[in-house]
Design brief:
This protein is of the alpha/beta class. The strands form four sheets. Strands 5-6-4-1-7-8 form a six-stranded parallel beta sheet, with helices on both faces. The chain has a six-stranded parallel beta sheet with strand order 11-10-9-15-16-17, with helices on both faces. Strands 13-12-14 form a three-stranded antiparallel beta sheet. It folds into two domains: 175 residues, Rossmann fold; 173 residues, Phosphoglycerate kinase, N-terminal domain (Rossmann fold). It is built from 14 helices and 17 strands. It is elongated and about 70 Å long. The longest helix has 15 residues. The structure holds adenosine monophosphate. The site of adenosine monophosphate has 16 residues, from helix 8 and strand 14.
């Protein structure tokens, strides 16, 4: 694929697909992390005297309609504060004059307001592709979606390239997927096995050990023949969990925090072999054995919390895990929305070697899948 940094972009018009899908509260950006992640590419473009039109989605509006609560206006304001520069907000794509504006940086209204985005519509893709001289894809978080701004626009552009964030994501994720140092420890938690099954299966091929935590662990605990009471489980996946356990790489925590309700009725600390029928496992502990594995690892991949860490009563497993990873000397890669929330809550993103900005895209990349946006970018780079 072509990288933005390898192109001469002086006085060129760039359309940059970014992922500025940030939380908005009372008309203000509540967490600007995703906007900040786009700054290196934006600065590179502006410092090289290019003009920029940013394209992003925000939330899930109904396609074809403008809805105030999904407008990019708060994003434009937040970005303007970060850059200390006016950021114009463009309502439609029909104007020939978008790049004639005196502003060097503008942002298009939510791309999901435009008919055809979801369906990867060729006409919408064509419009986006031909607005500027170069189409830059930097929205790693949406690279797993085959939509007009993440696929068709790349396909139909004269020149399409990867922005600095995408380049960094691919470098770090590839390192953890293909270019790792052993011992390799994967830690996979979160709510449901069904959303992590492909990741567990794929990582089973490269990791030496996989610590399973969170709600996911319940299905594995059940598969190992123990009672999980009324914990969240996926009964239909018990047999698959058994076959994964048989491969011998899975490590299940041994100590659980249980309660009779998510709100914390009758909280107990106990061995996972002692769970009663009326109890739920809501947190799992990292003990000496798992601490040792983290200390010895040279590569750590982490996705998903160990428990319902949003509630203080069930946060210890995730907090201890975050601290252990922060102390480790390993190359550590973390990804997923809840995982990054935990990192921001208990440690700092800098305590981890790399925090991916992708949720679904991160999972699919680490499952070994070819992401549609990356695939089409690669095809545009062929022969250059
Ligand atoms: P995910 O997005 O799949 O990584 O899942 C994150 C969510 O899993 C968090 O919001 C946690 O509250 C939830 N979670 C973690 N452990 C459990 C558990 N034992 N039971 C139910 N939900 C859990």
């Amino acid at each position: 694929m072509i990288n933005l940094t390898s192109l001469d972009i002086t006085n060129k018009n760039l359309v940059i697909r970014v992922d500025m899908n940030v939380p908005i509260k009372d008309g203000i950006v509540a967490d600007a992390s995703r906007i900040k992640a786009c700054i290196p590419t934006i600065k590179f473009a502006l410092e090289n005297n290019a003009k920029v039109l940013l394209v992003s989605h925000l939330g899930r509006p109904e396609e074809g309609n403008f809805e105030e609560k999904f407008s990019m206006k708060p994003v434009a304001e937040s970005l303007s504060n970060i850059l200390n520069e006016e950021v114009g907000l463009i309502g439609g794509l029909d104007s020939e004059d978008i790049f004639k504006s005196p502003s060097s940086i503008q942002i298009l209204e939510n791309i999901r307001f435009f008919e055809g985005e979801k369906a990867n519509d060729k006409d919408l893709g064509n419009k986006l592709a031909n607005l500027g001289d170069i189409y830059v894809f930097d929205a790693f978080g949406t690279a797993h979606r085959e939509q007009a701004s993440t696929h068709s626009a790349i396909e139909q552009s004269k020149i399409a390239c990867a922005g600095l964030l995408l380049e960094r994501e691919i470098d770090f994720l590839t390192k953890a997927l293909n270019n790792y140092q052993k011992p390799y420890l994967a830690i996979i938690g979160g709510a449901k096995v069904s959303t992590k099954l492909e990741l567990i299966k794929h990582i089973d091929n490269v990791a030496d050990n996989i610590i399973i935590g969170g709600g996911i662990a319940n299905t594995f605990i059940l598969a190992s023949g123990l009672n999980v009471g009324k914990s969240l489980v996926e009964e239909t996946l018990v047999d698959i969990a058994k076959s994964i356990l048989d491969k011998g790489k899975i490590i299940l925590p041994k100590v659980a925090i249980t309660s009779e309700s998510f709100e914390g009725k009758n909280i107990n600390k106990k061995l996972i072999s002692d769970i009663k029928d009326n109890e739920m496992i809501l947190d799992l502990y990292i003990e000496e054995e798992t601490d040792q594995l983290i200390n010895n690892a040279n590569t750590i991949l982490w996705n998903g919390p160990m428990g319902v860490f949003e509630n203080k009563a069930f946060e210890k497993g995730t907090r201890d895990l975050s601290n252990a990873i922060a102390k480790s000397k390993a190359f550590s890669l973390a990804g997923g929305g809840e995982t990054l929330s935990a990192i921001n809550k208990y440690i700092k993103p800098d305590d981890v070697s790399y925090c991916s900005t992708g949720g679904g895209a991160f999972l699919e990349f680490m499952e070994g899948k070819a992401l549609p946006a990356i695939k089409v970018l690669n095809s545009k780079g062929n022969g250059r």
